[in-house]
Amino acid sequence: MTAVEEGTGPARFERQDLRDARFWLVDLRGARFEQAVLHGVTMRGVELGNVDIDGEVKNLVINGVDVAPLIEAELDRRDPDRVKMRPTDPPGFREAWEIIERRWADTVARARRLDPELLHESVDREWAFIQTLRHLVFATDAWIRRAMLGNPRPWDPLDLPHDTFRELPEVPRDLEARPSLDEVLALREDRMATVRAVIESLTEEQLASHTEPVSEPGYPPPESFPVRECLRCILGEEWQHRAYAERDLDVLEARDGNTRVPVGNDR
Q1: Structure pTM?
Q2: Are 135 and 241 in contact (CB under 8 A)?
Q3: Which residues of the chain are under the pLDDT cut of 70?
Q4: Which of 31, 90, 156, 214 could form a disulfide with 152 if both were Cys (CB 3.0 to 4.6 A apart)?
Q5: Please, is 245 exposed, middle or buried when counting C-beta atoms within 10 Å of its C-beta (0-12, 13-18, 19+)?
């Protein structure tokens, strides 16, 4: 797609390759970047204020200081369980998954107190709560049931790949589906039980091994992957998307006129 013509409103750049682009004397106040890759970006003489950045930050040097390690240290300080999402041995993975299950149980209990229609409502153009759960089903199907367990077609029709996913005929992607919370939770419980079984039986030898490639095209591609990275991918997906869900539930509760009752250790 191309940018909207000048004079018809704010310019929009969607699914464009702007690598090595140059911006000089431009005004970006109020600009919004979503699903953007900013590796290798250089900014000189910029004015940066009232900026909200949410994403994976590495090697971010501001005025000569790499602030990425400072950000990571502060996030770990705020929530010590975050460190446990980077396990190195089977007991560490088991502890991490117990944390994931406990925290998601609290988040689901919080969501159940809302008007069910709000669980289909987007906050700031992000996925709705039920879409988030559908995406986590997809993540488990991709990295555990397909990559690790060798099922070449593990998909459920409600699986929801990430926004930047390249359409594949083998993988469902129904953006219009509106399943109930209970319907999606039944899928989630099944997939979470699969992850739990894999992690409970995990050995040091398995953790150090690679997966056997599946025989059919799909996602991820039919390649061999480190078992450790497959499991860490799931932990990361579960941790991050729960944080997004909690953030959005704050907004939805305000819309619903409910006052949040604290449950568990949410943050």
Answers
A1: 0.84
A2: yes
A3: 1-8, 258-267
A4: 214
A5: buried
